[in-house]
Amino acid sequence: MTVDEEQCCCSGQCVLAAPDLFDQREEDGIAVVLVAEPTADRYEEARTAARHCPSNAISVHERD
């Protein structure tokens, strides 16, 4: 997973949807990825967080 920092609008929706996968920097509120490659059972949570991002700043890169 990645977050486009320039596109992030700091809404925190990703943190609300997946607090074990995302956080926000205290200094500016930009989202940060805590787990770049979640386990297979966590990908749905990652996709949900990406869907809730109002600026579409989150990309989920799933493994084959």
From TrEMBL:
Q: Report whether Cytoplasm shows up as a keyword of the record.
A: no
* InterPro entries the UniProt entry points to: 3Fe4S_ferredoxin, Fe-S_cluster_ET
Swiss-Prot/TrEMBL cofactor(s): [3Fe-4S] cluster
What SUPFAM superfamilies does the database record attribute to this sequence?
A: 4Fe-4S ferredoxins
Concerning Gene3D superfamilies, the annotation shows: 3.30.70.20
What are the record keywords, sorted? 3Fe-4S, Electron transport, Iron, Iron-sulfur, Metal-binding, Transport
Q: What does this protein do?
A: Ferredoxins are iron-sulfur proteins that transfer electrons in a wide variety of metabolic reactions.
Q: What is this protein called?
A: Ferredoxin
Organism ancestry: Bacteria, Bacillati, Actinomycetota, Actinomycetes, Micromonosporales
